[in-house]
Amino acid sequence: MREYKNVIVAYSIMILLIILVGVFQSWSIALSILNFCLISAVMTMGANIQWGYAGLINFGVMGYTALGGLAAVLVSVAPVEEAWSAGGTNIIVCLFIIIGMIFSIRYILKKFVKSKKRTYGIISLIVIGLVLLRLVSEPGIESIEAVDPAKTGFLGGLGMPILFSWIVGGFFAAGLAYIVGKVALGLRADYLAIATLLISEIVIAVIKHEDWLTRGVKNVIGLKRPVPYEIDLQNTPWFINLVEKFNSGKLKLINSVAERQDALNQLVIDASSVYVKLCFAGMFLIVVIILLVITQKALYSPWGRMMRAIRDNEEAANAMGKNVVKEHLLIFILGSAVVGIAGAMMVTHDGLFTPGSYRPMRYTFLIWVMVIVGGSGNNFGAILGGFAVWFLWIEAAPIALFLINFFTSHLPDTNVIKLHLIDSVPYFRFLMMGIGLLLIMRYRPKGIIPEKINIK
Amino acid sequence: MDFINAIVLLLNYIFVPALAYGSQLAIGAIFVTLIYGILRFANFATGDMMSFGTMVAILFTWYFQSIGISLGILPTALIAIPFAIIFMILYMLTIDKLVFSYYRIKKSPPVQLAMVSIGVMFVTQAIVRIIIGPFDRRFFDGEKFILKANEFKEMTGLNEGLTVKSTQVITLVITIIVVSILFWFLNKTKTGKSMRAYSDNEDLALLSGIDPKKVVMITWIIAGILATIGGVLYGLDKSFKPFTYFNNMLPIFAAAIVGGIGNPFGAFLGGYVIAFAEILITYAYKKFFTYILPETLEPDSLVQLLSTDYKFAVSFSILVVVLLFRPTGIFKGRVL
Q1: Which of A219, A351, A368, B123 could serve as A434's disulfide partner, Cβ 3.0–4.6 Å?
Q2: Domain extent for B281
Q3: What is the ipTM of this complex?
Q4: Do residue B130 and residue A428 have CB atoms under 8 angstroms apart?
C-alpha cells in the first residue's frame, strides 16, 4: 500500500478538483471536463506505450486521432444510396486498382533481383497506376460530391452502431501506424518526431480535402449516440419521477403548484444533461480501466521487460537475440491503435466530426505535455497527466483572470494594460502549459508519478 | 503555338512566387540547421521564434509610423529589422540561459532538448499572442508593385502579364545579402571556422581550445538574426499571423532535412527545392498547354497534378521520399 501512496494522493487531489468545479461552477461543466480527461487519458496511454515502454517518439498523435474520428463517421452514418449509385462503382474499381498495384509491386520485388530495370519497372507501374486511378476516380468523385451537396455529398458509412467504431478506429490507426512504422522507424529519435509530425499533417490534409469520403471541411454533424438524447429524457416519465424524488426536499419548499412545476422542469433539463454526460463518463471509464489492466499486465510481463531492455539499450537487446525492428513496429502499432480508439471516442462524445479542428497544438503537443508531466513509462502517471493537464487547459482562463485581477487590483478599470491583459486571457493557457512543462522537465524529469519497476 | 506567352505565364505564376517563398523557407531552414548542427537538437520552437522576431519588428514599425519616419517607396519595416534583431538576440540568449544551457551542460540526449524546445514553443506562442493577439496583421507600406501586369503587357505587347511585387524583390535581395555574409562568415572568419569545427566534432574542437560558450552564443546570435529576417520577410510578403508562423515550421523542417541537416548550404537549396516542388505540382497547367500545343490537342481539364489543398502535403511527401531513399538529404548532411 505504501508504494502506492503518492498515486492515491495525486488521484484524490485530482478528483477533489473536479468535484470543486462541480460545486462552484456547475456539475455539467465538471462532467464534461471529466469526460475529456478520460479521453485524454486514453490518448496519453497510447503515447505512453510508445514513449514510456519503448522510447519511440510519435508526434503523429493528431493523425491517428483524426483517423479514429473518421472511423466513427464511416461506421455510424447511414449509407447515402444515391451517392453509391452515382459513383460507387468508380470508387470500388479504384480500390481494386490500388490492391492490384500493391500485389504486382510485391510480386516484382519478390520475383526479380535488384537491378536498374526493376526500379524503372516499379516506377512506371506506379505512374501508370496513378494515372489510371485519376482517370477512373475523377468522374466518380465529381458525381458523388454533386449528390445533394448541402446535406450529404459523400458516400456515407455503414449505418452500424457507433460503438463499433471504437474498435474500427483502433484498426484504422493501426493500419496507418504499420505503414508509417515501415517507413520511418529506422530514423533517429528526433527525426522520427519530425517525420511522424509531417505524416500526420498529410493525413489531415487528405481527410480535409477528400470530400467524397469524409465530407471534408463541410463537417459531419448529428452522429448517432450510444446514450439517450437529452430531449427524449426530458419527456420520459421515469426520469422526471427520479428527478422529483431526488429534489423532493427542495421542491416542497415551493408552495404554488405552477412555480413548483417550473422549478421541476428546470431541474429536469439540468439533470438530463448531467445524466447523458454521466453515461458517457461510465463508458469511457470502462475503456480506461480495460486498457489500464491490459497495459499494466503487459508492462510486468516478460514482453514488457523485453521492451524496457530494448528501450534502455538497443544494441544489448539485439545482441541477446531480440528482434528490435519487429518489436518497435509492434509497439508503434499498438500505441497508435489506442490513440485511434480515443479519437473515435471523442467524435462519439461530440456527435460531430470536424476535420478543420485537428491541429497539432491541441492533438499532438498537448498530449505530449500530458505524457511528460504525468510520468512516462508509468500508466498511472500517464492517466494522471491526461487528467491534470486537461483540467489546467480548461481552467487556465479562469485562473489567469483571477491572477490578473489580483495583481492589477490597484489599477483603475480603464487602465490600458489591464484591459489588454483581460482580453488576452485565453492565451494564458499556452503560457501555463509551457512553463509547467519546462518546470517538470527541469525539476522532476520523470514526471509527477515516475516509472517504478518492481523486480520480484 | 506561342512560346513566349507560355514562358511569361510560368514566370509569373511559378518562378517568381516560388523564388520568393523559397528564399523565406531557406532562411528558416538555415536557422534550423545551424541549431541542429551546433546545439544538436531539433528546435520545435522555430516557427514561434520567427513570429516573436516579427512581432517586435511590427511593434517598431508602428512606432516609426506614428512618429512619421518612413522609407518612401520601401516598407518601414526595413528600418525596424535591426531593432527587432537586438530584441530577438536578447530573447534567444535569455532562453538559452534559463532553459537550454542546463540540459547542454548535463549532456542530455537530443530528444530531451527537443522536448524542452516544445515547452519554449508554448511559452513563446503565449507571449506573442498576449502581446499582439492572434489576428492577421499586415504591416507592409510603401510601393506595392515593381512591375504591374498591365504595364508589362503594354510594354511587350504580349497576352500574358508579369507581376513583380516589391516584397518579392526585397525578399530576394535581402536573402542573397544575408546568406552571402553568413557563408563568408562560416568559411572565412576564425569564429565561423571554430563553429564548423565544433559542429563536426565537439571533443576535438574542445581539445583544440575552442571556447564552447562563445560558439553557442554566436550561434544563438546568428539564429536570432536569421529568425527575425526570415519572419519579417514572410510577413511583408504575405501577412503576420502567429498560427501561420507555427505551421511554417513544418515546410522549414522539410527544407532543412531535404537539404541534408547540419549543412547550411544544403538547407539554403532545400528551401528552394520545397518551394518549387509545392508550386510546380499544384499548379494548373491548362493555360500553359493551350499556348504550346496546337489547337486540336488542347486539354479540357485543368491539367493539375494535385489540387492546391495539398500544397503542404507535397513538401512533406518529398521529405518522406528523401528520408526513405537518401536519409542524408540531397546535399549530404549528417547521417541520421
Answers
A1: B123
A2: 3-325
A3: 0.89
A4: yes
**Dihedral over Cα of A150, A153, A154, A155: its sign:** positive
Query: Does B243 fall in a domain?
Result: yes
CATH number assigned to the domain comprising residue B255: 1.10.3470
| A355 contacts A204 by C-beta, under 8 angstroms | yes
Whether residue B336 is contained in a domain is answered as: no
Distance from CA of A338 to the nearest CA of B (A): 22
Q: Which of B256, B262, B272, B254 is nearest to B314 (CA)?
A: B254
Residue B256 belongs to a domain: yes
Could you tell me what percent of chain B has a pLDDT over 90?
49
Residue A448 Cα distances to A103, A362, A373, angstroms? 49, 21, 6
Question: Residue A360: closest CA among chain B residues belongs to which residue?
Answer: B247
Q: What is the DSSP string of A47-95?
A: HHIIIIIH------HHHHHHHHHHHHHHHHSPP-HHHIIIIIHHHHHHH
Per-residue cell: A208? 480535409
What's phi and psi for B154, nearest 5 deg? Answer: -65, -40
Domain boundaries of chain A, sorted by first residue: 2-79+156-443, 80-155
Q: How many whole angstroms separate alpha carbon B222 and alpha carbon B31?
A: 8
* A217/chain B closest Cα distance in angstroms: 12
Domain count for chain B, please give it. 1
In whole angstroms, what is the distance from residue A377 CA to residue A302 CA? 16
pTM: 0.91
pLDDT at A251 over 70: yes
Q: Is A417 exposed, middle or buried (0-12, 13-18, 19+ CB in 10 A)?
A: exposed
Q: How many CB atoms lie within 10 A of CB A92?
A: 13
**Secondary structure letter of residue B146 according to DSSP:** E
Task: Quote the cell numbers at residue A123.
Answer: 516506377
Asked if the structure places residue B254 within a domain, the reply is yes
Q: Do B116 and A202 touch (CB under 8 A)?
A: no
Other C-beta atoms closer than 10 Å to the C-beta of B154 total 11
What does the buried/exposed string (b/e) look like for A328-342 if buried means 16 or more CB atoms within 10 Å of the residue's CB?
bbbbbbbbbbbbbbb
Chain A positions touching B44 (Cβ under 8 A) are: 365
Neighbours of B321 (CB within 10 A): 12
pLDDT tens per residue, range A354-373: 998 999 999 999 999 999 99
Q: A18-51 pLDDT, tens per residue?
A: 999 999 888 889 999 999 999 999 999 999 999 9
Mean predicted confidence (pLDDT) in A413-434: 87
Phi, psi of A353 (to 5 degrees): -120, 115
